[in-house]
Amino acid sequence: EAGSHSPGTRNMSKFEALNLEINKGQTVKIKGHVSGNAEGFSINLGKSDRDLGLHFNPRFSESVIICNSKSNSSWGSEERHQLMGLSKGLDVKFSIQLHEDKFEVKLPDGHEITFPNRHKYDKLTYLCIHGDFKVTSFKCD
User: Would the pTM count as exceeding 0.85?
Assistant: First the structure.
């Protein structure tokens, strides 16, 4: 791929993991780099790309973080949070904990966002991260 992008072009990346076993009480830790000209990215956790317990979507263009869920390819009602503790061009770390009633997302600055576990998932098997974010490490504990 080297040399295939002209200067200023956004290089969208995608990181996808299937057949995971993330159980209630466990935490997913994601480290990566937000590109310098980022418009946004999303972290999706659930059973598949059609059934998501958490869609976490920082949008730099709107200074907002959108959280939502998806069931059978249909989006739920979104929650909007002010974009805080996240800047373009930096290496960052997120941790997301699955609880019986909610997801807890810890932002790089320690700020926390909670989102209801609408589907009452007690196990997650699917993770997809795409957009202006390059994953450097991913672990679950």
Answer: yes
